[in-house]
Amino acid sequence: MDAIRYIVFIFVFLIVNTPIYLQLYRVFLINKKPITIISLTALYWFGAIFTENFIPFIVVILLLYRYHLKVNCSEGAREDALGHKADDGESYMRDINVWRFDRHSVLNVTIATLVAKVLVTIINAIYINMLSLIVKTEIQPQEVVTDFYESGFWPRFVLFFVIVIFAPFVEEYVFRYFLYDKLFLPRMPRGFAAFLSAIIFTTAHYNLSGIPSFFGLALFCTYMYEKRGYFAAVTAHMVFNLSTVILLVFIKM
Fold first, then answer.
1. Distance of alpha carbon 112 from the chain centroid
2. What sign for the dihedral angle of Cα 237, 2, 16, 48?
3. Tell me: the pLDDT tens digits for 214-245?
4. What percentage of the chain reaches a pLDDT higher than 70?
5. Which domain holds residue 231?
6. What are the respective helix, strand and coil percentages of the chain, to the nearest 5?
7. Where are the extended beta strands (E) located within the chain?
8. How confident is the model over 73-85, as pLDDT tens digits?
9. Average of pLDDT values for 27-46?
10. Where are the alpha helices (DSSP H) in the chain?
């Protein structure tokens, strides 16, 4: 079992951090001196190992602020102030700019997410009841949920930021932008790209009891990404996770 957990950890670590590093290298490091590339590469990977999602989160925010938002700041813009050309795949066959932040849509996204959360939770509860009839061992929740439920105040405080803030920005960048939009969508039909990225997202969370929730969340965030862009997908992911955290707090009380 420990060997399986170790393999899963490596898989999740690589699937999350490799796309972010590749984008970091392409945007900021490719023209730097070798010593700078080596130093910043080591800093990123060691930081990613020892800080959970914090270093990837910082890098994603840097990429958003210094690259994506600059490149896409005006309609038809093809090059930013640093001389980087926009990716054709970033507006692949859609009418919206996926990097535009529409603060007026936050409430609508939040309401839609809460409705989706209720539906997914009901489906997941039915799934768990059916699964319990097949699997005779006790069905365990996701490890981070157990850690949050059993932790003291300060560890729980840190986990709150990891779950509600860091994870949505990082995971939406990896699974919706990089895998779904940049890697899969130019090579396969839209529905299959959404399904495949959702399968990888679900696998990366490695929890038998939460398969419908993770798969449903992935598809819903893909829908939001398509209709309203990256920040809408992040908002949906944050609301989804926050509602779970609030429920855990009430259970703890």
1. 18
2. positive
3. 999 999 999 999 999 999 999 999 999 999 88
4. 83
5. 2-252
6. 80, 0, 20
7. none
8. 654 444 443 444 4
9. 95
10. 2-24, 34-50, 54-63, 69-71, 106-134, 143-150, 153-161, 167-171, 190-205, 211-228, 230-252
Distance (Å) of CA 115 to CA 5, 111, 122, 214, 230 = 33, 6, 11, 15, 20
Question: Residue 152 corresponds to which amino acid?
Answer: G
Is the separation of the CB atoms in 76 and 202 below 8 Å? Answer: no
Residue position matching structure tokens 């798969």:
215
Which residue reads 């066959």 in tokens?
93
Q: Cα–Cα distance between 119 and 61 in angstroms, integer?
A: 31
43 residue type, one letter: L
Query: Distance between CA atoms of 61 and 58, rounded to whole angstroms?
Result: 5
* Counted domains in the chain: 1
